[in-house]
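Quick illustration, no need to memorize.
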Amino acid sequence: MNKNDLSPASFIGVEGNGIISFGSGQPDLPPPDQVYKMLPHYRDFKYGLIQGMQSLRKALAEQYPDSGSEDFVVTNGASEALDLSLRVIAAMENGKSNKVLLAEPYYYSYPHLIRFSGLEPVYLKTSQGRIDLDDFRRKVNDCKAIIINSPSNPTGRVESIGTLKEIEKISSEHGVFVISDEVYKELIYVRENYLLSGPHVVTINSFSKTYAMCGFRVGYLWSLDADFVQRVIAIKTHASMNTNILGQEMALEATRVPRQFIADQLKIWESRRDLLFQGLQSLDLDIWKPEGAFYVLPKIDNPLDFVWNMYSQHQVITYLGDWFGAPGRVRFSYALDVEKIEEGLARIKKYLSR
């Protein structure tokens, strides 16, 4: 590996040997104990329903208004749900261009998934990490879809309810699909999550972040547009068939976990947020305070040198802001324990002081 070849793939799964990783978006907290209880007795390893286990979809329907099990598709993580949704939208003829709006900074896979679907990413301006509504109004009418990610990866920012309602209203008026990526919806420190709704809203979620079940690869999409759901199932039938049935059984157990589990986890995330945010702020870095998820995105001089030198010289992994459409910044995840955050901050301070 060398500096100019760095990418997110350079660091995924890298650990050990004194490495401290602020890179991973993988929770280090354990899944709920309940998800393991069915393992010793589980014996069903046959193909499952393409749309997902009926029992899991029924459990999900209890969490969403005016919904039934038919309104969900269980997918291989949120990534497959995003991919399938974009491919369906790309195939629809609605008099729109092939453009998809996304706010900049963005989750690094969005532009790639958009292009893989034969669509074109168009970037929205943001202010302090939040969508510029005036820019949205200028660009939305010519687009097929918009992707909303609140709380955001990589900024940790949460869009205001007023902004989300305006996006709902204008998108509905123009017949534009809204893909709402809500994988961090339970990890908000400032208010309850606002659930986007409307005739062309597709909500994406997963069990990876809330329940620390990343490797099980269980996500889902929810839409009240029955035609959209059937189009997704038609593609999934030939692309990946059913989602991991063992993972689905474990996800079903997660839906039964008391809400207190999530509340307790949120307190841990918030305390880590405060530790990392205050530590980076004390180093005189320009930084937005995260309101959800588990990321911060400070400005750093010569960010490529910083990411490379912190890794090669100080065994600290961080992610380059350019990968997220945020040049001049570096993304830090605080999905690691307090001792590692403190040690990582000490190494960063030593590097920056030089």
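The mean pLDDT is 93.
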